[in-house]
Design brief:
single chain; Arc Repressor Mutant, subunit A; alpha+beta; two-stranded antiparallel sheet; elongated; about 325 residues
Amino acid sequence: MIVELSTRIISKYISFDSDFLVGGKPLRGVISWFQSVIPMENEHGEVALEFMFSERLKPFLLQLSEYAKIHPLDVAPMKSGFAIRMYQVFKAERDRMRKHTQSSAMVYTLDELKKMLGIEGKYKVLKDFRRRVLDVVEREVNTHSPSVQVKYEYIKTKRRVTGVRFVIFDKIKMKPAAEKTGGGEATNYAPSEEELSVLTYSQHKAYTNLVKFGVYEGIAFKQILPNIKGGDVEGFEDYFVKHALAHFKRWARNQPNKAISAATFVMWWSDKKVFDAENDVFWKIVEKISADKKKLDQVTFDNRIEAKNMTKDEFIEWYKRTQKEMF
């Protein structure tokens, strides 16, 4: 394992435009990241690796206004030079904008991006560029970066792809369950049937969908449901949860398993306050709920409005009685 890691790290390099032109274009230079990677024993008696940066890399390390300071082990698992290069850029942008926005966007024309990656004139077929470069960058950064995640989308001009937009956001760091849920109380707690019986029809559907996604019953009942508020949302809490989960799945791809995905969603909700009314995401979801309402037929909409003032069981009884009266 140590040998493989050392070999992988020592093979990392950066490429750059030199001052020498051939055919009007600068020749590319290449510098290895590290001069040496040597096993050693640290102060705790553990086997460790000592890194020494290449001497020729020092001028680049001193020009840190454009690039991020990154730890060597951050990029060690990345196999693609494209991913390492873009990770530098993404991390620098998030470090610069983190205090101001919850996500950052960077836009490049295809030519600009290829030039930055040193592949001008290559991958002229878009699907090859996507498969060999864009998908690799997204996958490796999202899998191995400890601090940021990224999603890309095409920019089109008259139906033709002319550029790429990268959206960068902070990676959620997992916390122990007890820390996330106040000593584990909500994690170990499951609401009784009596407690669930006070939920409205839409609240009960929202609760069921959260639990189905993998959220602990106690967290869904105590931490999430009470915070789904707002006149436009009342009676449509299940719609809010549906769109919140869709937003999460879109932006938090590559979660290793269902449990971690659910835990990350809870942190987005409780710690990051992504779905609070102070956040733009909340109002985007409200807009989607408003659009959903317009698609409902009048009877279904009226039933929803009626149901928000009843418990789930009361609404079901009311609905059955209404149906009998109609026939």
